[in-house]
Specification:
Length: 137
């Protein structure tokens, strides 16, 4: 594979192994939080293994992955699907409350069915929270 020029640094050719990693990375900017560059040589099999492990935890950021593994020795893949479901339910409740508030402000009356609907939605959130807590254990 022929080397192409890196558009962000025309002096640094792009690595034939990974098109996103420059062979000679640019000098860090003086205002960087992390200003020390560490490099390591690996075999093709080791590189493939590292990329496989990165994909298992759903990350494309090699720097963050390497830092986490070198400092802590492990990386955890967190599933946020339960929290997203709870957030969606809470958003629906917020919409319902706004509709009820608008109706109360317009008619000056509060209906029993409005309170029952809010109660059902709150019960659904509690059910999702309990389910999430059981999965954590």
């Amino acid at each position: 594979m022929e080397n192409k020029e890196n558009p962000t640094n025309p002096i640094s050719p792009i690595s034939p192994i990974s098109p996103t990693i420059p062979i000679n990375p640019p000098t860090p900017k003086p205002n960087r939080k992390r200003d020390i560059l560490l490099r390591v040589f690996v075999t093709e099999a080791e590189r493939d293994f590292i990329y496989e492990k990165m994909s298992e935890i759903n990350t494309n950021n090699f720097g963050a992955y390497a830092r986490k593994m070198l400092i802590d020795g492990y990386a955890i893949n967190t599933d946020y699907s339960d929290l997203k479901a709870i957030a969606a339910e809470m958003q629906k409740i917020g919409v319902n409350i706004n509709q009820i508030a608008r109706r109360v402000n317009t008619t000056s009356r509060i209906y029993e069915q409005d309170f029952e609907e809010i109660k059902r939605k709150v019960d659904e959130i509690w059910r999702l929270l309990r389910l999430s807590l059981l999965k954590v254990r």
